[in-house]
Amino acid sequence: MIVLDASVVYKWIIDEDHPTQVLALRLREEFLLGKTKAMAPNIIFYEIGNILSFKAALSLSDIKRGWGNFVKLNFPVISPTSNFIKKCINFSKKYHVTVYDASYAVLAQERRCKLITADEKFVKSVNLPNILHLLHLSVI
């Protein structure tokens, strides 16, 4: 089991010319074949919508197609409890990251699994062994 954040799942639904794209698509293939189980906090719905909405290079049809691709994934999401949000706030304060970003890390901690992200700044900010950049997928 792994936790994926929106920066990785976005690469599953929109083609980009980026070095991490191939790695993300390989991970998507493993997910779709059932070889890799993945999940995210339910905030991923808002984050994917936000990324799609604010990417200047995307047309409205690209955005609609991207959202449709995301919905078709039927990506497993976890709804937060009050205690979960409390842990996210504590994590946020400790590592100086947003509560949104903290939610992925806290979920990975609770499930005792790795968080995979394409957000290099986040990885460096928290510097935790269970939080890996997409470029380090071979470590999983």
Termini separation (Å)?
10 Å
Number of helices: 7
State which percent range the strand residues make up: 5-15%
Relative helix content? 55-70%
> In order across it, which strands form the biggest sheet?
3-2-1-4-5
Structural class from helices and strands? alpha/beta
**What sequence of helices (H) and strands (E) makes up the elements?**
EHHEHHEHHEHE
Question: In this structure, how is the largest beta sheet organized?
Answer: 5 strands, parallel
* Overall pLDDT metric: 95
Q: Any idea what the shape is?
A: globular
Beta strands, count: 5
Outline the low-pLDDT stretches. none
In words, what does this structure look like?
With 140 residues, the protein is α/β, with parallel strands linked by helices. Helices cover 56% and strands 11% of the residues. The protein has seven helices and five strands; from the N terminus they run βααβααβααβαβ. A five-stranded parallel sheet has the order 3-2-1-4-5. Helix 3 packs antiparallel against helix 4. It is globular, with a radius of gyration of 14 Å.
Topology:
Layout: E1 2-4, H1 6-13, H2 21-32, E2 38-41, H3 44-54, H4 60-73, E3 77-78, H5 82-95, H6 99-110, E4 114-117, H7 120-126, E5 131-133
Parallel strand pairs: 1-2, 1-4, 2-3, 4-5
Helix pairs in contact: 1-2, 1-3, 1-4, 3-4, 5-6
Which terms would index this structure?
globular, five-stranded parallel β-sheet, 11% strand, alpha/beta, 140 residues
In brief, what are we looking at here?
By secondary structure, the chain is α/β, with parallel strands linked by helices.
